[in-house]
Amino acid sequence: VLQSSSLHSGSQQRFQYSRAILVENELFLSELRAFARAKAAAGYSQEELQETFAFLLFDKEEEAQRVCQSGLRVNSSNICTL
């Protein structure tokens, strides 16, 4: 999934990953579901509501753990490698 998710085909083979972790936080998932329900009620199309995935690159495991525990909000972090 990581290799095939690159937006630029030239980048697909340039990265090697030692470990990837899928994080599912029930609190954040319930917020996402509520957000999606509100958007659907407001008339957004299924295409606009379709989920997509992004991958964050961290320099330190501690940074990843912190985001997994507290979430990542717009303008709340200096993380910029997506």
Automatic annotation (TrEMBL):
InterPro entries found in the cross-reference section: TASOR, TASOR_DUF3715
Protein origin, superkingdom: Eukaryota
Pfam family, one: DUF3715
GO biological process: negative regulation of gene expression, epigenetic
Cellular compartments per GO CC: nucleoplasm
Domain TASOR pseudo-PARP: 40-81
Identification of the protein by name: TASOR protein
Organism lineage: Eukaryota, Metazoa, Chordata, Craniata, Vertebrata
